[in-house]
Amino acid sequence: ATMPPLLAAMATAGRHGVLIKSAVVMERLAQTGQVAFDKTGTLTEGSPQVAVIRVVPGGLLDDSDQVLAMAAAAEQPSEHPLAAATLAAARDRELTVPASADFTSLPGRGVTARVEGREVAVGSPAHLLSDGHQIARRLTEELEDDGHTAVVVLVDGDPVGVLGIADRIRPAAAETSARIAALTGRAPVLLTGDNARAAVRIASQVGVHDIRAGLLPEAKVAAVHELQADGTHLLVVGDGINDAPALAAAHIGIAMGRVGSDLAIEAADAVVVRDDLTTIPAVIELSRRARRYVI
Ligand code: ADP
Ligand code: MG
Fold first, then answer.
1. ipTM of the predicted structure?
2. 89 Cβ partners below 8 Å, 6+ apart?
3. Domain boundary, last residue among 117, 143, 166
4. Total domain count for the chain?
5. Coiled-coil regions in this chain (predicted)?
6. Cα 33 from Cα 188, distance rounded (Å)
7. Which residues 6+ apart lie within 8 Å of 201 measured at CB?
């Protein structure tokens, strides 16, 4: 028996490592007019490493091991790639990570928890540092200028240190971006919760010039609506909880499955299970080919 073209295309996509949730999605992929990528875990490998630890002089903690152990304690329950990096670094240094309680997670911002009777916050400098925190701000900017994602650690509201976290760009990112630009006639866009300095550094290496940085989950949704306002069918690719609303708001949302959070996978219309970015232009091409056979 011959399979209908869209179902055959879905089966082919599955063999290439992309699970497409319905035939409607398979068909819609052909309409893609522009692609928007998330940064961490999507354009980058999502296996970031703690590269630098800076201690805030005069702060509550005196050395980098103490800063790292506090951060790791608070991050334990988090599924964010930056949390995994922090815990791996603590393990590498063979640190004793204290227990934590009352964990809360704010997507796009960071985490908080109680550790040894103190309130620990770990996350984005933009959301955790205020004007008074000048030393921590300076440390943060130095790390970001080097292309790191800076994560600040606060104990009872006072900055104690900054982690500089580095993530490798996926080897296929530049090629993928160029293929997508050729297919859609427009260069892809970057939507990231990370800081603008790190975003520019990564985007410029993959041929992406439209960079929207420092976006909270709701701001990613607003950016999707703006990019779709002229009728463009936007395909959003992301991996995190923070991407879930944008994946749902876009004409098509695709989640990166390996590092992807369950919420992103649920919100998406398709899931890349083989962890290969080149599957994105491949499924757009597949959809266009399948539609040629549908009248
Ligand atoms: P992206 O959009 O690039 O994937 P996210 O929106 O997930 O990034 O995160 C944006 C920023 O929020 C991070 O760069 C970091 O500063 C902060 N952040 C979010 N979650 C965490 C976490 N669990 N630990 C530390 N920082 C976090
Ligand atoms: Mg991400």
1. 0.95
2. 49, 50, 53, 68, 72, 163
3. 166
4. 2
5. none
6. 10
7. 147
Q: Return the bridge partners of 118, or none.
A: 115
Locate the ligand 1 atom nearest the alpha carbon of residue 192 and give its number. 2
Cα gap 16→42, rounded to integer Å: 18
Mutation test of ligand 1: which of 206, 242, 247, 256 has the most ligand atoms closer than 8 Å to its C-beta?
A: 242
Residue to mutate (ligand 1; options 82, 201, 247; most atoms within 8 A of CB): 82
- Tell me which residues have their CB closer than 6 angstroms to ligand 1: 38-41, 75, 78, 80, 82-83, 108-111, 122-124, 149, 151, 192-194, 240, 242
Tens-place pLDDT, residues 19-61: 999 999 999 999 999 999 999 889 998 889 999 999 999 999 9
Measured in Å, residue 185 CA sits from the centre of ligand 2 at: 25
Which CATH number goes with the domain that contains 151? 3.40.1110.10
| pLDDT tens-digit map of 147-171 | 899 999 999 999 999 999 999 999 9
Q: CATH number of the domain at 261, please.
A: 3.40.50.1000
Query: Could you give the residue numbers annotated as active site?
Result: 38
Hey, how many other C-beta atoms are within 10 angstroms of the C-beta on 222? 15
Owning domain of residue 187: 5-45+169-291
Instruction: Please tell me the distance from the alpha carbon of residue 161 to that of residue 32, in angstroms, as a whole number.
Output: 43
Are 183 and 283 in a shared domain? yes
> Could you say which of 166, 200, 228 is where a domain stops?
166
Q: Which residues contact 253 (CB under 8 A, 6 or more apart)?
A: 235, 236, 237, 238, 246, 247, 267, 268, 269, 270
Whether 185 and 74 map to the same domain: the answer is no
39 and 183 share a domain? yes
